[in-house]
Amino acid sequence: MIFLLTTFTLLAIACALTFTYFNAKYKFFTSRNVVGPKPEFFFGNMREAFFKRRHFSSIIDDFYQMYKHTEQIIGFYNITTPYYLLISPDLIKQILVKDFKHFRNNEFSGLSDKKKDPVMALNPFVMRDEEWKEKRTEVASGMTQNKLKSMFPLVQDVGKRFAEYIKLELNRNQLKSFDSREISVRYTCDTVSSCIFGIDGGSFTKKESEIISMGNKMIRSISDAAKSFLPKRLMPQDVQDFFVYLMEEAIKYRNNHSISRDDFLAHIISLKKKKDMSEIEMVAHGVTFFLDGFDTSSIGLAPIFYELGKNKRVQNKLREELVTAFPNENDVTYDKLLDNQYLENVIYESLRISPPITFANRECSENITLELNNKKKITIEKGEKVIIPLISIQQDPEYYHDPKEFIPERYDHGIKEYRDKGLLFPFGEGPRECLGKRFALLQVKTAIYYIVRNFEISVNEELTAKNLEIDPEELLMNVKKGGMWLNFKEIEC
């Protein structure tokens, strides 16, 4: 009897302490006079995300819609962690650009451990402060316009092989449907394999490419770590060993055969000579380039094929524009392809509707007091976190006419006015803008050219959900649940 009484007493005390702890955590925003949805015990405002019923970005869109007419910034809780949600485009622009020094790190900075995870710890995405700045500069210098122009024939070769792969698959089965993400991954894997390691990734010739397999394993590991928000190894040892081996062999082959190519590998070799870089640093730069060009680019490319399949008017207009600009495939040049306005419009319209990353986050690195339109002031302190609802802004009918519709013509006068107003940022904005933006656009434009010129694209409506949703199992990336399934019909232009 005494044992039971003691047990119940201890349980009651534990429950009371737990309730007191959560209740204290949930006073964070009220104590700062910041409005927001009322949290519930344990879950905060993220019950549905916790149980994988809805994606995180869908829930923060609810908050955005609730407060967009009355507030510039609100607060919500993910379990007990408080987040500021930026609603005003002007405030978003201010934090990403003008006040960047106060928000120079993202929340995922610090997920990796330099001792346990030496390769990923040197990726600019997870680096902080001056270390981030130094490594970003090293990587960015390998993605100049001149270097990308030199790499264009390599990307172009993969684009041609992409079209040949679709043709071969159709010859085997005319009725075959293709998962848009899966074929996009094959293409992006082979482009980065060629530009980084100087090899054929085998994505179009093998049922399962080892590079794709290792790349996917690395992505899953990073995603799991990001969901936990705890420092852990982002790159499994066997994946690290694989990429170290690839880098060693690529450099050895290039040196032994006196090969001269102005690609990203040549840039890494040059950095080694200038800065006496270690093997791990070289591999880290290669993996940084690989992640941007392999995963993020494929997630951005897949919805473009889907939107073109859904919108025949746009697809036909784009094909006509490309054939007029390049009567023969041999007429395609780097400058003309990148300067094609309608192709640019199509890409940015898809990125507006389906940005590869569903939201952006920043961690305050220096205390700052924000002055709001209503003369109210909010002080955000070092270590506190802000969320930027990319999809909510880019699909807001107050900023875009018919925001759910795919209308590339809305950018006929350029995208600058939308970017200047803080309404379009699929690659991020400010000094921490996506490092691989230029290369990604080159990849995507090349793929679209060769596929649209050679095939008529349609959506397989039996396999593709009518209302696509972001997979709740994902955290950051915009991967559609069930996939986007396409049919291709070979044409002559």
TrEMBL record:
Binding site for heme: 434
Entries under Pfam families matching the protein: p450 (PF00067)
Annotated keywords: Endoplasmic reticulum, Heme, Iron, Membrane, Metal-binding, Microsome, Monooxygenase, Oxidoreductase
CDD domains documented for this protein: CYP6-like
Keyword Heme appears in the UniProt entry: yes
Gene Ontology annotations for the cellular component aspect, listed alphabetically: endoplasmic reticulum membrane
Obligatory cofactor(s): heme
Recorded superkingdom: Eukaryota
Compartments (UniProt record): Endoplasmic reticulum membrane; Microsome membrane
Main location: endoplasmic reticulum
Protein's membrane topology: Peripheral membrane protein
GO terms, molecular function: heme binding; iron ion binding; monooxygenase activity; oxidoreductase activity, acting on paired donors, with incorporation or reduction of molecular oxygen
Protein task: May be involved in the metabolism of insect hormones and in the breakdown of synthetic insecticides.
Family: Belongs to the cytochrome P450 family.
Protein's UniProt name: Cytochrome P450 6FW1
Organism from which the protein derives: Chironomus kiiensis
